[in-house]
Amino acid sequence: MAVKKAWVWGSGTAVLLSIIAGKLLQRRAGHGKDALPGAPDQRGYGLITGASSGIGAAFARRLAQDGYNLVLVARREERLAALAGELTQAYGITAEVLPADLTQAADVTRVEQRIANLKLSLLINNAGFGTNQGSLLASNLDEQIDMLNLHVLATMRLCRAALPGMTARGSGAIINVSSISAFFPLPGDINYPASKAYLDTFSQALQAEVARQGIRVQALCPGFTRTEFHDTEAMTGFQKSRIPAIMWMTSEQVVEDSLRCLGRDQVICVPGWRNQLLVLGSQNGLAGLILRVARRIRHRG
Ligand SMILES: NC(=O)c1ccc[n+]([C@@H]2O[C@H](COP(=O)([O-])OP(=O)(O)OC[C@H]3O[C@@H](n4cnc5c(N)ncnc54)[C@H](OP(=O)(O)O)[C@@H]3O)[C@@H](O)[C@H]2O)c1
Question: Which has the least CB within 10 A, 2, 39, 156, 291?
Fold first, then answer.
């Protein structure tokens, strides 16, 4: 009985502290310096992978507004071309289309080569996908390998390709799009959270290596975001309606929070106070409770 009471009090206090901390984090996030590298009239280039939809397309629109020339990377060339046309017309920038399947080593090499010849101020490694096939044993091995190639190897290689130019110029920023799932090692689609956890650790360690060269690195960890992510073939069967409406953010909100984090040199960036509360909860006594609820959401129905 005494143990149960202590647990209830402990959990209650943890929730309260999480709410206060979340609010403070949110308030502080609003007071950033100019987040984007380069003077506004000399922004240079931004290269965005996964720019054909969702968060990547939102980054492209935001950076174009801010005067960046862009290189847009993804597989669906016609989507990229339409976005490039829209942004060139609206903002007078240069927007280049670079079609590539980043699960393929040869395509990653082509993107690396483009980076080597570019005055790259901002690299956004955003391309990614999830699967909804259940356990590792039940999953399609080729698709799991593709996921690791895309999330882990392509990101690592493009970061490495960007470093010589950024180091020589003494400035630049890299945003690696991770996920809040990195904090929640749930069963089912286990390579998704595992590969995103790699991105968090990789980004933190890389930031420590390159801070003195004037380069900023971020691991952006969105929660549920309204994009095409949950509508792909690999996610067939995922029921978005099971996720409470309050948990969803828009791509634009995620991008704004990411840029605020960049202005504050915050490496691990969790957009939205609800997601920040979940992460805080995962790091204290509420981890078990959150994981149980998440498992029920995943397996219900
Ligand atoms: N939406 C969410 O709830 C959520 C939550 C946390 C994290 N994220 C992360 O956010 C990032 C962006 O996803 P999103 O939500 O914006 O989903 P999305 O709308 O499905 O966009 C994914 C992008 O990745 C590209 N892509 C996928 N496979 C690729 C490949 N093999 N080679 C090159 N590009 C590829 C897609 O373009 P093509 O199909 O044209 O190649 C598309 O542009 C992902 O890394 C995802 O893990 C999303």
Answer: 2
